[in-house]
Amino acid sequence: MSTGAASMLAWTGSATAVVAGLTLLGTGVLAQSRAATAADLAALAGADALAAAHGSSCEVAAEAADRNGAVLTACEQRDWDVLVTVKVESAPLPPASARARAGPGPADLP
């Protein structure tokens, strides 16, 4: 094999490795963004259900998370706030998770 061909093969291999690494990084960033969005929406849905005197704010939050491609892993109602944790699968990487809190502002409390 000539030096030029070996050099071209080395560059091609390096470029392939860089593209694969960037693809994995993009997959992780996208999964984290999806998890954050799902957590925000689940917390808002749970807080809305709580404000409307719905009996199960965490069930509403779980449904909202599911509709956004996430799994609700934790839900807690603290006074008028709803705190949630969600998980989004991002194969081949570990699942991405995010937390969110929603509730009325201090001036809006009953």
Keywords:
alpha+beta, 2 helices, 110 residues, 55% helix, 3-stranded antiparallel beta sheet, rod-shaped
Care to describe what's here?
It comes from Candidatus Brachybacterium merdavium. The chain is an alpha+beta fold and about 110 residues long. Helix content is about 55%, strand content about 25%. The protein has two helices and three strands, in the order H-H-E-E-E. The protein has a three-stranded antiparallel β-sheet with strand order 1-2-3, covered by helices on one side. A hairpin with a 2-residue loop joins strand 2 (about 80-90) and strand 3 (about 95-100). Helix 1 runs antiparallel to helix 2. It is rod-shaped, with a radius of gyration of 22 Å. The N and C termini lie far apart (about 80 Å).
What number is the mean pLDDT?
A: 85
Largest sheet: 3 strands, antiparallel
N-to-C series of helices and strands: HHEEE
Distance between the termini: 80 Å
What is the overall shape?
Answer: rod-shaped
Number of strands: 3
Backbone CA Rg: 22 Å
Q: What percentage of residues falls in helices of 4 or more residues?
A: 40-55%
Task: Quickly count the helices.
Answer: 2
Stretches where pLDDT is under 50 for at least 5 consecutive residues are none
- For the biggest β-sheet, the strand order reads 1-2-3
